[in-house]
Amino acid sequence: MLELFQYAFFRNALLGSLLTAITCSMVGTYIVSRRLVFISGGLTHASFGGLGLGFYLGLNPILTALLFAILSAFGVEWVSRSKQVREDSAIAGIWSLGMALGVIFIFLTPGYAPNLSAYLFGNILTVSFMDLCWMLSLAIALTVVFSFLYREIVYVAFDPEFAFTQRLPVRWIEHMMMIFIAITIVLSIRLVGIMLLMSMLTLPQMIVNLFTSDFRKLIWGSAVIGFVACIAGLALSYVLDVPSGAFIILILVIAFLIAKRISPR
């Protein structure tokens, strides 16, 4: 595989793996601690509607998917806070609406049907230089936010009611993290795809959580595990000629089963 390093697409894939592991570690730790896994799944599939809209209008599908994901996040929160619809029901509706709109827009797109396999199942080798710039910007933004607001984020993640009694800006932090979740989901689609992305945001944290509950250790540990899984998945996909995204998730599942077997917890 050493000869692959001379190719720009392979170097981009490695850098994309590292940046995705970093961003997913921070956002995923908040998701798991805050018990927002189902919401992340809903936003992931809702973004498919944005992809379809982008193809239909001839725009950048990543930008339209990002807009769809952010609007879906606040839509779920607005509907669930009205007390007339349960949160899980609102998520299911957004989930289904996004997939349905994506299929309709893609079907109506003139000309040849776009290749959706890279978005649905991931193809890390298609990561471009511009994708890396966006992912690097997100990683820097998350690092800065977590550095200055670490205590507040931890309080909100584990006990928002207590954080409110401490007069912390709970609502503001929840909105900010929801936006970061949506951005991370959309920018990580290239790595493992819509169908498998939720696992990338939760499995590394679940593995580390078997050994520790420390928020900071969860972030660092899941970043390392996520990056190692990406490298292993990329190597095996090259050797066996199979999609890299599916192999990355398969490796994480196997790692979780092994960790669960040996975990003292």
- Structural class by SSE content: mainly alpha
**Total helix count?**
13
Number of E-state strands: 0
What is the CATH fold-level name of the domain at 7-111 and 124-194?
Answer: ABC transporter involved in vitamin B12 uptake, BtuC
Beta fraction of the residues?
Answer: under 5%
Q: Mean pLDDT, as a whole number?
A: 85
Q: Which architecture name of the domain at 7-111 and 124-194 does CATH use?
A: Orthogonal Bundle
Report what the structure shows.
The protein has helices at 8-34, 37-57, 61-81, 87-108, 117-120, 129-148, 150-158, 160-165, 170-187, 189-192, 197-209, 215-240, 244-262. It has 265 residues and is mainly alpha-helical. The chain has a domain at 7-111 and 124-194: ABC transporter involved in vitamin B12 uptake, BtuC. Helix 2 (37-57) packs parallel to helix 4 and helix 11 (197-209) runs parallel beside helix 13 (244-262). The radius of gyration is 18 Å and the shape is globular. The termini are far apart.
